[in-house]
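Appendix B. Worked example

We walk through a single record from start to finish. Start with the input: the chain for DNA-protecting protein DprA, Lactococcus hircilactis, length 282.
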Amino acid sequence: MIISNFTIYRWKNAGMTNLNVYRLLKYLKKNPEQISLRTMAKIGQVKSIPDFIERFKSQDVQTLREQFKQFPSFSILDACYPVRLKNIYNPPVLLFYQGNLELLSKQKIAFVGSRNPSIDGIKSVQKIIKEMNNHFVVVSGLAKGIDAASHIANLKNGGLTIAVIGTGLDTFYPSENRLLQEYLSKKQLLLTEYGPGEKALKFHFPERNRIIAGLAKGVVVAQAKIRSGSLITCERAMEEGRDVFAIPGSIQESYSAGCHHLIQQGAKLITQGNDILEEYEF
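Next comes the structure step. The output line below is what the pipeline stores for this chain.
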């Protein structure tokens, strides 16, 4: 059974979750014979099989194909798919992109942190990135705050960066980062598992964070509260065997509490770029 990226897109559009599709693809890799939609849904563990079949059959395939073709994509079946990402729990089965796909083959470090950082937090990230001397592609989520500061700091130092976003590539969120997103789409690399037209929904961002952590050798966290998406990203990174680096802050500030918690849990405390480089024998 030949599976195209568009077929995967149709499955997801009809209501299969990413994990449903991943289960199905694993089965079809070992059993490539033709099977029915109902059997596919059973293998993928779709909750409502009749609803999935009805949605799949009622799709306007021509309109869906035109939508799909707006941006290039690659799937977990393609040779360019990063091995490190493939090995995480629930890896994204289909990714849309803009920019230079060759960045996926380079060594990567992720940066995550507060959307409302202090000036000291931003300066700390700028310092760490400058001192890494462009040994890594910097991966982050293009959110306001630490994410945007990380992308910009690496660009100013002549480095390369990948932004993983929680919307379709034709959506700009947050709106204040539109110019940055447009620049990265031409000069660097944008990735998303969400198709054209998909807006910023709350659950998209935890899902996006697993991709950020999954792409990188390690994750650097700056100014994260105890209850924050950044902390969850780092905890998932630890579970996946990634290195986690935490920039310490004031014990009197809540936005440093998450970093200090991670250090207590085994993350490496860093104050300079060389603290990261020495972990990888540069």
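Two observations about the output. Residues 18-30 form the longest helix (13 residues). Residues 5-69 form one domain.
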